[in-house]
Write a structure and sequence with these properties.
5-stranded mixed β-sheet; 10 strands; 33% helix
Length: 227
Amino acid sequence: MKLSLCITTYNRFELLKEAYAQVVDDPRISEIIIVDDCSTEPGIKEKVNSLAGGKVKVFHQAQNRGMSRNKADAISYSTNEWCIIFDSDNVIGIDYLDAIPRRLSSNTIYCPSLAKPEFNYEYYSGMAFVSDNIGAWIKEDMLNTCMNTCNYVVNRDFYLKTYQYNPEHIASDTIWHAYNHLISGGAFYIVPGMQYYHRIHKGSGFLQGVDHNMRMQNEVRKMIMAL
């Protein structure tokens, strides 16, 4: 199975370089798609373009599309059935790829069980969540967080079919997609041993307008609890 590593970025060139460095030569990844969301730092377009070549493909948005649409665009550019949608301020390693199940179901999103060092979802390892059972579990803060940290494996066609843009969801876009995925018959599987390094820093998209993002995340959490 060949994978597309789809990385979205905005004003993060130095972090972007580190995000995929450990897996750039891994044969399981046939393409690395970088989509820059109209970054504004001086000279950054040229810097990002310098990464292109071989399996690395670079795209630039003509205007800022926001995190939600930038993710969907990155996935739409992929040529493989399966994509890893990944944020440029995090780091993916070989251990992440090693943990991906050999057989995948098109309606399932495969989530890491550990977003080092802060977010540990290992309690849920091996568990599958669908609309019928997730309501009781998402009451727990850690699973609620899991539903909004992204950096997971998706089926390209199912993701794009279930994707719904909502401008109110700026950095709560992942849990908003989780809701639409669930009501469309989708499932989430927490993959044992799947891990990556999740940076928390002042430039984090979620921390920009954190009060709004927290409020919107909690609104969707209630919607999922009601399923």
